[in-house]
């Protein structure tokens, strides 16, 4: 299949001064969906560590200000719904994580990103929030391609 079937989906719990987001990986072809928030935050930590080393040498380097707390990524409001976490950085994040001797369980560099605000979670996914027990199934139902034509 030529098109991208890998998704990184951010479901925002709180959209205030500090944004709290739970991230999911979804493969549209296989239907695999899982919470990858902790893995993503750890890979961003690896990315940021390498960026800080560059900054210490007076080189420009992007810092993605994420912190893992209570099952969610926390970051400040002000630079988009994902605050500097953009698809064009995914390959660099994954490479720096691998260079730190760690491996992600999903192909971040192949993902495209989609974000849901709290009202989207309620109105589009029909879930009560990011920890609703049916949120992964709701994401699967929304994104998975019906390869056989059957539901």
Keywords:
151 residues; alpha+beta; six-stranded mixed sheet; 4 helices; globular; disordered C terminus
Detail the topology: elements first, then pairings:
Elements: E1 6-15, E2 18-27, E3 33-35, H1 37-56, E4 67-69, E5 72-76, H2 87-99, E6 112-116, H3 118-123, H4 135-143
Parallel strand pairs: 1-6
Antiparallel strand pairs: 1-2, 2-3, 2-5, 4-5
What does this structure look like?
With 151 residues, this protein is α+β, with helices and mostly antiparallel strands. The chain has 4 helices and 6 strands, in the order βββαββαβαα. Strands 1, 2, 3, 4, 5 and 6 form a 6-stranded mixed sheet that branches. Strand 4 and strand 5 form a beta hairpin. The radius of gyration is 16 Å and the shape is globular.
Coarse structural class: alpha+beta
What fraction of residues sit in β-strands? 15-25%
- One letter per element, helices H and strands E, the order comes to EEEHEEHEHH
Oligomerization: single chain
| Helix content estimate | 25-40%
What is the arithmetic mean of pLDDT? Answer: 90
* Total strands: 6
Q: Identify low-pLDDT runs.
A: 146-151
Shape annotation: globular
> How big is the Rg?
16 Å
Main beta sheet strand tally, sense and closure: 6 strands, mixed
What is the straight-line distance between the termini? 20 Å
Number of helices: 4
């Amino acid at each position: 299949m030529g098109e991208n079937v890998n998704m990184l989906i951010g479901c925002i719990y709180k959209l205030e001064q500090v944004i709290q987001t739970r991230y999911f990986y979804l493969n549209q072809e296989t239907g695999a969906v899982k919470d990858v928030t902790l893995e993503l935050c750890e890979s961003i930590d690896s990315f940021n560590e390498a960026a800080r080393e560059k900054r210490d040498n007076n080189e420009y380097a992007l810092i993605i200000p994420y912190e893992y707390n209570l099952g969610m990524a926390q970051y400040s409001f002000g630079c988009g719904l994902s605050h500097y976490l953009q698809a064009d950085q995914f390959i660099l994040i994954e490479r720096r994580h691998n260079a730190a001797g760690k491996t992600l369980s999903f192909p971040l560099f192949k993902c495209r990103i989609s974000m849901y605000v709290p009202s989207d979670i309620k109105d589009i996914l029909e879930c009560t929030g990011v920890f609703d027990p049916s949120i992964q199934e709701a994401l699967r139902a929304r994104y998975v391609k019906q390869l056989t034509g059957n539901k």
